[in-house]
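### Sample
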Amino acid sequence: MADIHECPSASGDGLLPAELHAWMLMLAATGAVEQELRTVVKDRLDISHDEFLVLCLLAADPGEALRMTRIAELLGRPKTRLTYQIACLQHAGLVTRTSVCGDKRGVEVALTEKARGLFKDASGVLAETVKAALARFMGPAQREAMCALMPDFAAEATPE
């Protein structure tokens, strides 16, 4: 675990432009959060982290289906890998796959009621895991930037 005092400065005094420096800080923080989420996701939902990311995309608008090509684009994953992940999620009863009307090759994916229930049951623990990990891995300047994106984080992310 990183010590908050060891977090890189957000001032960007190094060789990187400020935007690239901020991006690298964000990647470091999200990488740390992903590592902590992997265990919680496996314990609570019994799926892989990559499968969890697919479900999160679908859960953003649970009444709507997404085309597999769009999911692959959003996650930056090869379509062949996504096909395997969707098959695993379908086998677990968490998603449905349907052909797109008028497009022989198009496939849409949607959450099942079972997946919606799992998300409802696990959402509190998942949210707390994210908040706690961000609080541990981000320094004051990084937290300030994140607070602009996540207002609820501001109240709960103060170091102990």
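Residues 44 and 121 are 9 Å apart (CA to CA). This sample (MarR family transcriptional regulator) is used throughout the tutorial notebook.
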